[in-house]
Amino acid sequence: MKILAWNYRGLASSGAVRSLLEVQKREKQDVLFLSETHWAKAKAEKLKKRLGCDHYLIHESDGRSGGLILMWKKEVAIQCKGISQYYIDVVIQDVEEWRLTGIYGEPNWDRKERTWEALRSLHNGESLPWLALGDFNEILFHYEKEGGRGSSFCFYSTLMYPFLHFF
């Protein structure tokens, strides 16, 4: 099974959609997670058809920010567990059941903990194998930060350990 996660930062331009269609044609993924789509259901439905997918789940954008879409082909059996502005959480029935969570992390520094709290609550008591992918809106090392306000925050030292601790 091929899975693609992509932060598109808006699918409003025809160039962005064209790029996505080219990747789909080349990679032929079975499941596609798109974050920061800036889209509502009507446009997601059209894209689903253009990509040759049969199903989708969406957390619609609130105007010009956010938006999550998970699309998949009919050969993939997916059951939705939950959707929020930070994630789309599903169980995939493959050879055995496993869990997939597409993530779009809180982009505002003063609210970063909301994403991690959502992930902690999703994990609570689950025993299925779990893949969390997407854009966590985090940096591992200070030298990776470009532009914007400087920060003394470092993902690895402050959040990575507590997050991994409960797995």
Indicate the topology.
Blueprint: E1 3-7, H1 14-27, E2 31-35, H2 41-51, E3 55-59, E4 68-72, E5 77-83, E6 87-93, E7 97-104, H3 113-123, E8 130-135, H4 155-165
Parallel strand pairs: 1-2, 7-8
Antiparallel strand pairs: 2-4, 3-4, 5-6, 6-7
Q: What fraction of residues sit in β-strands?
A: 25-35%
Q: What's the domain count?
A: 1
Query: What is the CA–CA distance across the termini?
Result: 24 Å
User: Can you write the helix and strand succession as a string?
Assistant: EHEHEEEEEHEH
- The total beta strand count reads 8
Instruction: Kindly provide the radius of gyration, computed on alpha-carbon positions and rounded to a whole number of angstroms.
Output: 16 Å
How would you sum up this structure, described in words?
- The chain has one domain (3-165): Endonuclease/exonuclease/phosphatase (Deoxyribonuclease I, Chain A, 4-Layer Sandwich), CATH 3.60.10.
- The strands form two sheets. The chain has a four-stranded mixed beta sheet, with helices on one face. A four-stranded mixed beta sheet has the order 5-6-7-8, covered by helices on one side.
- It has helices at 14-27, 41-51, 113-123, 155-165; strands spanning 3-7, 31-35, 55-59, 68-72, 77-83, 87-93, 97-104, 130-135.
- It is of the alpha/beta class and 167 residues long.
- The chain is 28% helix and 29% strand.
Key terms for this structure?
167 residues, four-stranded mixed beta sheet, 4 helices, 8 strands
In short:
With 167 residues, the protein is of the alpha/beta class. It is built from four helices and eight strands. It has a single domain, classed as Deoxyribonuclease I, Chain A.
